Amino acid sequence: MSTALHLALKEIWRGLGRFLLFSLVIALITLLILFIAALGEGLGAGNREYLEKLNGQLVAYQDTARLNIASSRIDCDVRRALSGIKGVEAVGGVGFSSVAIPRGGGDDPFDVSLIGVEPGKPGEPPVTKGNTLARRSADRVIVDKTVALVMNVDVGDTITVRSAQGADYEFYPLQVVGITSSQKYAIRPSIFVPIATWDKIRPKAAVGGGVDEPVCNVAAIRLQDPNQIEVMGQRLMERVRKVEVVDRKTAYENTPGYSAQQSTLTTQNTFALLIGLLVIGGFFQIQTLQKVPQIGMLKAIGTPNGVVAAAAMIQIILVTLLGVIVGTLIALGVALIFPPNIPIIFEPRSGATAVISILLIGPLGGLVSVRYSLRVEPLIALGLDT
Amino acid sequence: MIALEAQSIVKTYPVGDGEVRAVDDVSFCIQEGELVALVGPSGSGKTTAVAMLAGLLRPTSGNIFVGGEELTAMEETKKARFRKRNIGFTFQQNNLVSYLTALENVELMLRLNGEFDAAGRARARELLTLLGLEERLHVLPRQLSGGQQQRVAIARSLINRPNLVLADEPTASLDTERAVQVVETLADLVHEQRRAGVMVTHDLRLVEYVDRIIQMVDGRLARIVSPDDDLSCLTDPASCEKITPEALGCSCEDSTP
Questions:
Q1: Residue A183 contacts by C-beta under 8 Å, 6 or more apart in sequence?
Q2: Does residue A61 contact residue A69 with C-beta atoms inside 8 Å?
Q3: Is B51 on the interface with A (CB under 8 A)?
């Protein structure tokens, strides 16, 4: 074993409580950073999931809507015009609004996104259980798995949705025909009904709607060649008037609050990492300051600077590594007991990025103390100043 | 044979527009198997002189030879390597690595010199046993008394069989009984193992165990005496006689290559 490793391990072993306590601090920082990342992922997914999983490559908006789904209106003529362009395989109108599913036992109603789709066309999600919607099945619904889980419903069951129609609430029973994967939109789980049903159920100033081909918010476009996204987007905007066509990523990045929310969480994560950097750097700096006479003595008896620096760096890496492992395990453990409707998603890529960031900030924060160790003069051992 | 030779070493520090001569033209030699006490009042330049003898501080002028090699001419890396192998240290305080046991503290020198093998480890145990610490081998410094800590430091300073052992006030924090034990142990080992030793002390009661006493006053060599001489002069520097060339322990030609 090298002298540096020997010194580092002995100091950790003989000061186990102190080092474990600091590993615990790093574990808590790791937990915080992983949770912010998971919250970012959860909220992000809650906003973009449906659009991200959309079974089409492009989304068409009304050109004056500035990619705002709520203010966009796409009528049948536009959808038909889009369908007629060469290279387009299918177009489906999609309407968005929100309703609630009343729950018994005094619980608050369960808010869901009500998404109207054209059965068999882009926009209708694939089901993991049961059947897709049929064109004339006005009282049928596909629910996403979170709705099925929270409301404890399965294929064949009936749910009742509550929607404001004028000044009153109306209740609409819908039979579950299929269950789809998680398809959140606007931070809510989603239920999918035929576009005419959507037009009838969606909250309105007055009871009405339910026409066969209502005006919807956007159109989902499936291309014959999915690799022609950019070219087709341009072509559609050139050939069809009053539409703005974008890819799915641009679509979900423009959902209300998505970018602001994500940049807020990124800022929080950056600050958490910065705090981690300062805490780790501060701990090792204080420890180095306490050890100055001992470091001076070690150098006076002939310990090379390289050994002093390597011993300090080994400690920093080991303590950080232990903290990160413990923090990650706690985070994974806590994630297992989270209810499914809480927007926390531990996504491997963002989790790994967070973990690697903390593993890097440990040594980075400790560099100041290592540099300080290197500058300690052996004369300190003799009580002399340089 | 001469183990250490200081030739007219001077150390000055700038102070304002002028300078302070912390060590002023000091010369002496120490033979193998000889332990010398460096005495003098506070601020007389003892510790600065020891720092220069150790190669930790470069003299403003003058030369230092250890085992015939000119320490003052070495570049820093070579000097650090030379120090590790040829010079043993004990300090006034903060002597031991707090998280290593007594045995591990001694073995650290073996590790630093690449001699951490079975023979080296056995030698470390023997040395600590010789110093009466056979029951305390696996004890951390904080669980050792001050005297025991200094004995561990002495063992560490001798484990690599250095040419020169430097002890900076090794008894400063000890009571008289333990101080005597430590100095006696140091003197015995220096004599038995034919090392050269320099012990800085302000305690004149301990000088009976050394071979010569070098007194410094205001950075200069004031007197070199034998413990058998009349030591009253050491407490009254004004009455000191001039230092004879014989008292220096050598002539410069003896060791200069």
A1: A49, A50, A53, A115, A125, A144, A189, A190, A192
A2: yes
A3: yes
Average predicted confidence (pLDDT) for chain B: 85
Bridge partners of residue B225, in order along the sequence: B213
Contact B98 A294 (CB under 8 A): yes
Residue A15 near residue A315, CB atoms below 8 Å: no
Mean pLDDT for A1-17 is 92
Q: Do A301 and B112 touch (CB under 8 A)?
A: yes
Specify the pLDDT at position B252.
Answer: 42
Q: Residue A219, exposed/middle/buried by CB under 10 A (0-12, 13-18, 19+)?
A: buried
The ipTM (two decimal places) reads 0.83
CA–CA distance from A324 to each of A84, A276, A320, B176 (Å)? 55, 11, 6, 52
Q: Which residues share a beta bridge with B198?
A: B36, B166
**Best mutation target, A16, A298, A299, A301, to test chain B (most B CBs within 10 A):** A301
**Does B240 score more than 60 pLDDT?**
no
- For residue B2, count CB atoms less than 10 angstroms from its CB and return exposed for 0-12, middle for 13-18, buried for 19 or more: buried
pLDDT recorded at residue A255: 87
Strand partners of residue A158 = A175
CA of B227 to nearest chain A CA: how many angstroms apart? 26
Residue B90's nearest CA partner among B196, B179, B199, B175 is: B199
Across the beta sheet with B69-70, the strand order is B18-31, B2-15, B61-66, B69-70
Residue B42, SS3? coil
Task: Please enumerate in sequence order all residues whose Cβ is within 8 A of that of A298, keeping only pairs 6 or more positions apart, or say none.
Answer: A308, B97
- Region A209-227 average pLDDT: 85
From A16, A185, A28, A38, select the one nearest A117 (Cα to Cα): A185
CA dihedral A204, A207, A210, A214 (to 10 degrees): -40
Say if CB B215 and CB B237 are below 8 A apart.
Answer: yes
Give the rounded percent of residues in chain A with a pLDDT score beyond 70.
Answer: 96
DSSP H or E stretch at residue A116: strand A110-117
Rg (CA), chain A: 29
Predicted pLDDT at A122: 95
Amino acid at the residue B2: I
Residue pointed to by tokens 């609004």: A97
Taking an 8 Å cut-off on Cβ atoms, the answer to whether A303 and B112 are in contact is yes
Structure tokens at B32: 């193998």
CA distance A16 to B167: 33
Q: Where are the alpha helices (DSSP H) in chain A?
A: 3-14, 16-52, 76-83, 145-151, 195-201, 229-239, 248-253, 258-290, 292-300, 305-336, 348-375
Rg (CA), chain B: 18
Distance CA B199, CA B169 (A): 7
Q: Which residue has the higher pLDDT, A318 or A302?
A: A318
- Pair of tokens at residue A117: 């789709």
What tokens appear for A277 in the block?
Answer: 């950097």
* pLDDT (tens digit per residue) in A270-288: 888 888 888 888 888 888 8
Q: Provide φ and ψ at A27, rounded to 5°.
A: -60, -40
Chain A contact for B99, CB < 8 A? yes
Q: How far apart are CA B104 and CA A1, in angstroms?
A: 14
* Calpha distance B149→B160 (Å, rounded): 18
